Amino acid sequence: MAYRWYRKARPFIPIVVWLVFTAWWIYGLVTVVVWKRSDGFSWLKPFLFYLAVTIRVLTLWVPMAFFWKPVRWVWDHTVFKGYEMTPKKLHRPIAAVVTIAVFLIGSMVPEETGENTRASRAISMFGLVVMLAGLYATSRNRSAIPWHTVIGGMLSQFIIAVFVLRTQVGYDIFAFISEMARTLLGFAAQGVTFLTDDTVPKLPWFFTGVIPPIIFFVALVSLLYHSGILQWFIVRFAHFFYWTLRVSGAEAVVAAATPFIGQGESAMLIRPFIPHLTQAELHQVMCCGFATIAGSVLISYIQMGLNPQVLVSSCIMSIPASLAISKMRFPEEEETLTSGRVVVPDDDEHKAANALHAFANGAWLGLKIAGMIVSTLLCIIAFVGLINGFLGWWGTYWNIIETPLSLQLILGYLLYPVAWLLGVPNQDLRTVGEIIGIKIITNEFVAFDTLSDPETVLTTRGRIIATYACCGFGNIGSLGNQIGVLSQIAPGRAGDVSRVAVSALVAGVIATLSSASIAGMLYTDAIAQNV
Q1: Could you give the angle at the alpha carbon of 289 between the alpha carbons of 241 and 313, nearest 5°?
Q2: Are 277 and 288 in contact (CB under 8 A)?
Q3: Are residues 55 and 143 in the same domain?
Q4: CB atoms within 10 A of CB 362
Q5: How many CB atoms lie within 10 A of CB 501?
Q6: Which topology term describes how it sits in the membrane (predicted)?
Q7: Domain count of the chain?
Q8: List of the chain residues with pLDDT < 70
Q9: Based on the domain organization, do 344 and 479 belong to the same domain?
Q10: Per-residue pLDDT at 339
Q11: Structure pTM?
Q12: Which of 87, 91, 289, 385 is the most exposed place for a label (fewest CB within 10 A)?
């Protein structure tokens, strides 16, 4: 009886939900705008939430094409019409000049203050040029590089950074996202309190402060995936990059999904297509995974005391960056199967029976991910300690005693030039070089742990750039992880996966570093005060 009633009422449930949220938003708007509520409430955050609910409800009955048609019409009759009127041989030069002008104006116009000098911004810009020049010089096929994707990707990355770091609206939006992420930590702590007592969540331990939020977040993602909300959001997000950067549908889906669900899980979204991907698409899929982090570990980094606005903005910036840089390093030379569509296929084999089943499966998956993180960190930190013990003993025979020889010390000097190219202040160069090296050799968890250590003394500019530089899965451990996942999904492509893996790792690391360079170009003292 209850199920029959539910089936009859189901079409009206979204309408009722929308009406409730409409009343909520109108009441909130009246209290803020008309009654001048002054206890920290603003109209922007409720509006964004209400807008998301409204769009989701509307698209249950109205196809997205209905909304995109007017946008496409305006685009075709303004920007694209001007593009067609321009001689074809001038398309790339004009696009390049416009991009360079945007970079120069955005980074050089603001006034100098403190650590924020035009010289330091110029160094960050020079570092970005060096990265792109290196990618061009080592490209698999320079004549096949899709410059539309490269220029559009770098410009999108810069515009996202300007929006987040230079505008109040952008700051408010990402601060709101960061605030929501922090709120999730509180709910996980309630579960820990139930299992133990109210003193355990307050302990300064990685095991009690970081692991429970990961388990809860993965379970929540599984629930959202089962309900279709996550796929809907990812496909909408992917459409933007598919349309603007002219990449294949599979590449757009993976790039859009990776910051939310992770490198292995994003590949699972296009599992039926993986056996048929071109080598360039495989390279792109892996590069996206190396260039950013996942939402599950993002929560843990926030709990470690790292700046949430920097972490969230870096994840979004890495999407167009990974698409642009991968296409420079390994351009497409074949016909792609998903070149004309963006779709997330249904996974009937692993589909949960209902929402409760999906949530339980997610909790179990979260426990496995948390266990993998704990065991990996334990072994890596112990192994680095072993290496440092040997190096310290070996260094004493070279009279290296005052500052013992260690892996961190060696990496600090080896990556000293990289830190300089990012625009890091001179006094922070060796420390930031160490942190970047630790991230590549071990993983970003260990690097962020070093960065958040009270004994790690850095300037605000150096700390922000280092946070951006480490915000990605580009490390040797993730290399093995991605090879294993993709080879398991498509055993027949294991050879191709292995062939492009190292190149994809290099491209992913450079994509993350490019975000750090752009952060150095846009850094201001006002940003330092906000973050």
Answers
A1: 60
A2: no
A3: no
A4: 23
A5: 20
A6: Multi-pass membrane protein
A7: 2
A8: 1-7, 9-10, 32-44, 64-65, 67-68, 79-80, 83, 178, 181-182, 184-185, 204, 264-265, 296, 337-350, 525-531
A9: yes
A10: 67
A11: 0.81
A12: 87
